[in-house]
Amino acid sequence: MSTSRHPRSWVTSANDHPDFALQNLPFGVFSRLGKGMGTDRRGGVAIGDCIFDLRAALEASLFTGVARVAAQAASRGQLNDFFALGPASRQALRNELMHLLDENSPQREHLQGLGKTLLLPMSECRMHLPATIGDYTDFYVGIHHAMNVGRLFRPDNPLLPNYKYVPIAYHGRASTLCVSGTPVKRPNGQTLAPGAEVPTVGPSKRLDYELEVGVWMGQGNEVGEPISIAEAGEHIAGFCLLNDWSARDLQAWEYQPLGPFLSKSFATSLSPWVVTAEALAPFRSAQPQRPEGDPKPLDYLFDEQDQKHGALDIELEVLLLTAQMKAQGMAPHRLALSNTLNMYWTVAQMVTHHSVNGCLLQPGDLFGTGTLSGPQPGQFGSLLEMTEGGKQAVELPSGETRTFLEAGDEVILKARCHRDGEVSIGFGEVRGVVVD
Ligand code: MN
């Protein structure tokens, strides 16, 4: 694989970096670590092991025109205003950033001279949620997850009849979305023990994770105005990783007839970097063919271009690090490897369906894709699937076993994009430790 035709950066840690090469340039919100620094949040761009400080770059007058306006919006303590500007402004800023950070940039010496005022080591910074999230919606577009879970409850009829017509979703809770690194407290709630006739209240005994991709909304719509499938892509600001922590015992008791409630709303973890559509463009793919006999999407969800290029080819990984493994110096253990090609609906179809009734979508709203499992063992994005509903324990290299999560367990999600002839990029990670 040759990537020699691709530009490299004078920020040398970016070259061959697993996540943040010059070709990625994701946006995020950070503050400097240290006394009194934690409250000074501002926007930055990940490049190698560093954060390019947009506020410092503006103070050094590094941007022009549309890119300057975009950099002003992206330099604030939340990216909502930047998301609202839409793709042309975002692309203008990305283009200027790529030129500034290129190893052949005419401004290289000037920028290097600015040192740590412009480029901060990530290890000296703390990441925050990238936007103020008004609404959060969790979809269910991972068809293998839907099949695997449906089979546990309805072996002969795993998918309900609406699944292949409707991108299924529920309204999630925005208030408990949290950034990577935030501990996750085991939730209390009602559960009905097997064979019991009345429920009890107490800590969940079946705490699980869900491997998902998050979709950040850019420009919104007007109330009552649907977003067409052809225009949906322009309303997406970027992508992140999302762990939809789930209390399976609460969920089993509460979910009928209106869907998940307290089993999901206690915590949802996000990776801090917003990977743009532009960075993901080389990793677009045709939407996988629907199996023989499946219905064609209804017209409002069907677009030739979306079918040809609307899917994403992103490798997704789940790792687990128990407290014992950590104490013994062991590496996190891979539980699953999956891919966004396991989505039955494209992100454009999610946006269009969400707005077809006129629902207002706003900059900084967040969608989860739903758990993105593959069809095979080793590709399952939740413990519910891996353990067949808690029946088959997972064995770990430490000799421990798990059916569901225990105190001290750290769940780590990662994502990477590879394609021949392209520079690989990644999403960074989202991690969270379970505390009782
Ligand atoms: Mn979910």
Tag the structure with descriptive keywords.
Fumarylacetoacetate hydrolase, domain 2; 25 strands; binds manganese (II) ion; alpha+beta; globular; seven-stranded mixed β-sheet; 25% strand; single chain; 2 domains; five-stranded antiparallel β-sheet; 436 residues; SH3 type barrels
Q: What does the radius of gyration come to?
A: 22 Å
The overall pLDDT, averaged over residues, is: 96
Level of helix content?
Answer: 10-25%
The hetero compounds bound to this protein are:
manganese (II) ion
Write down the CATH topology of the largest domain.
Answer: Fumarylacetoacetate hydrolase, domain 2
CATH class of the largest domain: Alpha Beta
Strand order, sheet with most strands: 7-6-21-13-14-16-8
Range of strand content: 25-35%
Number of helices: 12
The second-level CATH architecture of the largest domain is Alpha-Beta Complex
Terminal CA distance: 47 Å
Can you count the beta strands?
Answer: 25
Topology:
Blueprint: E1 27-32, E2 42-47, E3 50-53, H1 54-59, H2 65-74, H3 80-85, H4 87-101, H5 108-114, E4 119-121, E5 125-128, E6 136-139, H6 143-153, E7 169-171, E8 177-179, E9 184-185, E10 188-191, E11 200-203, E12 207-208, E13 211-217, E14 236-243, E15 246-247, H7 248-254, E16 268-270, H8 277-280, E17 284-285, H9 304-309, E18 311-312, E19 315-321, H10 323-327, E20 333-339, H11 347-355, E21 366-368, H12 383-386, E22 394-395, E23 401-402, E24 410-417, E25 425-435
Parallel strand pairs: 6-21, 8-16, 9-25
Antiparallel strand pairs: 1-2, 1-5, 2-3, 3-4, 6-7, 10-11, 12-15, 13-14, 13-21, 14-16, 17-18, 19-20, 19-24, 22-23, 24-25
Bound molecules: manganese (II) ion.
